[in-house]
Amino acid sequence: MPASTSARADPHHDAKPRRRVGRPAAAVLDQAGITAAALQLIGKSGYDGFTMAALARTLNVAPSALYNHVSSKRDVLVLVQDHLASLVDVSAFEAEPWERAVRAWAWSYRDVFSQHTPLIPVIAVLPVTDAPKTLAMYEAVSAGFSRAGFPQGRIVSAIVALESFIFGSAYDVTAPADIFDSGSMAESTPNFTAAVQAQDLESYGKPADVAFNLGLEAMIARFGALRG
Amino acid sequence: MPASTSARADPHHDAKPRRRVGRPAAAVLDQAGITAAALQLIGKSGYDGFTMAALARTLNVAPSALYNHVSSKRDVLVLVQDHLASLVDVSAFEAEPWERAVRAWAWSYRDVFSQHTPLIPVIAVLPVTDAPKTLAMYEAVSAGFSRAGFPQGRIVSAIVALESFIFGSAYDVTAPADIFDSGSMAESTPNFTAAVQAQDLESYGKPADVAFNLGLEAMIARFGALRG
DNA sequence: ACCACTAAATGAATGTCATTCATTTAGGAT
DNA sequence: ATCCTAAATGAATGACATTCATTTAGTGGT
After folding, report:
1. Is residue A98 within 8 Å of A148, Cβ to Cβ?
2. A147 and A88, same domain (yes or no)
3. H-only helix segments in A63-151
4. Which CATH number goes with the domain that contains B32?
5. Of the residues B39, B71, B103, the one at which a domain ends
6. What's the domain range around B39?
7. Boundary-marking domain end, from A39, A71, A103
8. How far is B175 from chain A (nearest CA, A)?
């Protein structure tokens, strides 16, 4: 058998980075493609499996090629986070009364980011300038608050308070079910242990949802009273 | 000059790991010491400078020695987080009415962890069994809720809601002041831009504090109404 | 006293990453 | 034609966390 001239040495998986050195005729990468691939990779492998090398592999590219389009891994995370912001449903602010709109937005926001909690530390300190779709979300929400007669000077504070609650609650969704099981220390924490048991008996739905509902309705009720 | 027999070769800094191989007469490390050193290191160098090697250096020990007492870096973070929980002020639950107690606890809790936001992802999914001091905090808080006539089945949900809000708000404290500066995109986001400006004019105190106060008072007011 | 066991150190790998750099190539502008 | 810049490759680099073999010191049992 003659050594094959065109076959790859390792026919294990297809789509290996078979591209010769130098600038290709048409660009392979751009930020949109990187974002989409990152999102898909995160969906398949989670944030643990999300490495620059793995991302490059799914794009059929050398890792270093990514750095022609983003300046760091954090940059990729910012792109992903901004894309996710566009998945948050703000449509209710144009069609429904304020209370219902806030409720729909908040649940949607929490649901989107509960699948992406590793992004929360990134979002929380990210200037809105770097995240246009996130900024668009804020615009839709503040327009809704404004239209509902919310006092101008408190709109941002109210949104920040809601958002803080949403981010914190997103973590809860991912927490293990038995996180409050006090185990062998139950005797030394009678009040807490009793409260945990009472909750298990009395509440319907997932605990994270019950808590989110409780806090959200509290904020909606009080904030609603601020409207002129 | 004879070659000195006891002087170290490199007199650059003192306290290098000059200890001969093998088990020392008295143990050098324990979890309490590791926790204290970690806390001090984090205070000095932040979470970026917090590496196992750096921690070992401050303890005058080889990095691998740490693994005789903790099983991972995450383990160290759990120890630190649990220590911080003991710094949260729950004393008001024994001396003050419910509303004031919740208020004092929540502000204290936020202030402690706003300096340690990288721990939040760790805490949020940590079983209480692994964090005895955190469990003690929950016990004090739920005892306070119980004593105040809060319905048993909702105590945990209420605490979780408050805690979620607290964690999210802890991030806000660390956010840059101009995080909401929409910059060149201001024209396309008139409502949000106006709201940001109105806030700057009208509100006193740090924005993060104003937002935290707003959300916290909303929860206290509504939750207070649940008491029997 | 002796011996086996376990605990607690050291120091030398290991392997995984993100990131950088030199090099190569393509296409557009002067 | 020539130059410049953009976009690839592939080969370092440098941090890290973590593991392993080895050494030494007490301890409990015989």
Report:
1. yes
2. yes
3. 63-66, 73-85, 92-95, 98-114, 120-124, 132-147
4. 1.10.10.60
5. B71
6. 26-71
7. A71
8. 5
Are A105 and A169 part of one and the same domain? yes
Nearest residue of B to residue A164, measured between CA atoms = B168
pLDDT tens-digit map of B71-105: 999 999 999 999 999 999 999 999 999 999 999 99
The structural domain count of chain A equals: 2
Q: How many CB pairs under 8 A join A and B?
A: 249
Residues of B in contact with A152 (CB under 8 A): 194-195, 198-199, 202
pLDDT, tens digit only, all 228 positions of chain A: 444 444 444 444 555 667 888 788 888 799 999 999 999 999 999 999 999 999 999 999 999 999 999 999 999 999 999 999 999 999 999 999 999 999 999 999 999 999 999 999 999 999 999 999 999 999 999 999 999 999 999 999 999 999 999 999 999 999 999 999 998 899 999 999 999 999 988 878 999 999 999 999 999 999 999 998
Share of chain B above pLDDT 90, in %: 84
Q: Are A126 and B176 in contact (CB under 8 A)?
A: no
Contact check, Cβ <8 Å, A128/B161: no
Cα→Cα distances A83→A2, A39, A74, B94, B139, Å: 51, 9, 14, 47, 41
Distance, in Å, from the CA atom of A120 to the CA atom of A110, rounded to the nearest integer, reads 11
Q: What is the pLDDT of residue B10?
A: 42
| Per-residue flag: B18 CB under 7 A of strand C | no
Is A67 in the same domain as A90? no
Interface contact B164-A163, CB threshold 8 A: no
Take residue A129 and report the two structure tokens written for it: 């300038």
What CATH number did the domain enclosing B211 receive? 1.10.357.10
Query: Residue B166 contacts by C-beta under 8 Å, 6 or more apart in sequence?
Result: A168, B106, B109, B110, B113
Rg (CA), chain B: 24
The secondary structure of B55-114 as a DSSP string is HHHHTTS-HHHHTTT-SSHHHHHHHHHHHHHTTS--THHHHS-HHHHHHHHHHHHHHHHH
Backbone phi, psi, residue A180, to 5° = -100, 10
**A216 and A103, same domain (yes or no):** yes
Please tell me the predicted confidence (pLDDT) of residue A1.
46
pLDDT at A17: 60
Does residue A174 share a domain with residue A101? Answer: yes
Bases along strand D below 7 A from a protein CB: 6-11, 15-26
Residues B67 and B98 in one domain: no
Indicate if B210 and B105 belong to the same structural domain. yes
